[in-house]
Amino acid sequence: MTTFASGTDTLTRDALTVLQPGFPGTTAPDWLLRRLGEGLASVGLFGRNIASPEQLSSLTAQLRAERDDVLVAIDEEGGDVTRLEVRTGSSFPGNHALGAVDDVDLTREVAYELGRRLAECGVNLNWAPSADVNSNPSNPVIGVRSFGADPELVARHTAAYVTGLQAAGVAACTKHFPGHGDTAVDSHHALPRIDAESSVLERRELLPFRAAIAAGSRAVMSAHILVPTLDPDHPATLSLRVLTDLLRGELGYDGLIVTDGMEMQAIAATYGIERGSVLAIAAGADAICVGGGLADDETIRRLRDALVSAVRAGELPEERLAEAAERVRGLARWAASASAADEGSATAETGSASAPATAPSPDVTRVDIGLVAARRALTVTGAEGFTPLTEPPYVALLTPVANIAVGDETPWGVGAELACLLPGTETGSFAGEAAGDAVLEAAGARRVVVVVRDEHRHPWMSAALDTVLTARPDTLVVEMGIPQAAPRGALHIATHGAARVCGRAAAEVVAGE
């Protein structure tokens, strides 16, 4: 059992309990271990914390040596957003690829295997899946992180993902409530706004969250978005109407509510993280996610003190903070004892509307499930007259600015995978108005494979592709984002995501494997 440090009063302990901080490095710093002893119950991991599965296992063991029931959370969506494989690219396709296949059993299998790998490394809370309906094709932050633009498709795959992940003993955190899909602004940079009527929100944004709740999602993450129909004055993360009246009251959700990162500019630039954290807990949130950018003991001290001061000043009811802290501890207890069999029986006992969360059948070799899914997700146009390449091509990446959730440290494309099949393949990265001419010059006489990512969102990318295709109509095109633009090129492959396995699946088509 965890023993708390003497001298830590209940109020201070509860204030620490509701925080989910990050930290730098691949071992836990002394200040973090000390805070665990004082009442901190959760830790968030990012790519900077992970070098290998073995190292991650050692890190989580180090945390549990200080607190045996600590919640170890991670933002591991698979696909474009990976922390386990941040330096190589994910072994699992993301949501959009799974939605393109539209096989809920496959989605459940993928989520189970991803959860199994997390659990093996000591991670027991995953900030996934994204239940956002990507109804705005220009969305700069969701895109392929969504299962698609059809609410019913998103709902059934969200439920399958939750079921598979939790069958592996890892708590799901369905996000971003009440839905981040119809936005044109990245909440990492500013406050997005969704102007939709209640009837639209009900049949579009809320449908997947209802499915996630029915499937037993242990956590839900709030979105830093303003939805005037629901609350004209406060973003969802800080809104009593959204978190308490809607999510808890109307939707009947009684699990943990986690905020999105409080250092994101949608909150930090308007309210500040201290005030924002107080308002979030008062509105109904139970856990404050912080540490993607701010990852130090000073930040934790400031947030703890802000919550304690708000209680003492009468701005935050002590009962609300205590309730939030108890929900965190409740999830920690579940996670500490969870197993695939336990989750299955728990779902059956609670009468969930979903199928029991039991482990999927072992029919598919688990090590290959990600690649199997990525192959099935491909949409290939022009294959009838295509002769696979036998000589190494030149791969041109038309590279947009990566959104913060994805990060720019994770490699993507088909070049590395093609080089394994066609040794001698070279890759170059291009951007801007002169990209097309630069590609042609770099490629020389070699066959060209142009890789794009959300071509429809980047006019310079379309112009570059026009230039290359005009000069070299035999060019192959691989779209690794949302395939919104019309297919073109001698062969067009849509992978529905930029995970490493998606690149592998496309490379196999190009090389005739």
Write a concise keyword list for the protein shown above.
513 residues; alpha/beta; six-stranded parallel sheet; six-stranded mixed sheet; 14 strands; 41% helix
Write a structural description.
This protein is of the alpha/beta class and 513 residues long. Helix content is 41%, strand content 11%. It has helices spanning 10-17, 30-38, 53-66, 95-101, 104-120, 151-167, 198-203, 206-214, 240-250, 265-268, 273-283, 297-312, 318-337, 340-349, 369-377, 415-421, 435-443, 459-471, 500-510, and strands at residues 19-21, 42-45, 71-74, 125-126, 171-177, 219-222, 256-258, 288-290, 379-381, 394-398, 426-430, 448-452, 476-479, 491-494. The longest helix has 20 residues, at 318-337. The chain is globular, with a radius of gyration of 23 Å. Mean pLDDT is 91; it is low at 339-358 and 361-365.
Could you report the average pLDDT, rounded to the nearest whole number? 91
Number of strands: 14
Gyration radius (Cα, Å) is: 23 Å
The main sheet orders its strands as 2-3-4-5-6-7
Q: Distance N terminus to C terminus?
A: 54 Å
Structural class: alpha/beta
Parts with pLDDT < 50 across at least 5 consecutive residues? 339-358, 361-365
Biggest pleated sheet: 6 strands, parallel
- The helix content, as a percent range, equals 40-55%
Which of globular, elongated, flat, extended, rod-shaped describes the shape?
A: globular
Q: Tally the helices.
A: 19
Beta content comes to: 5-15%
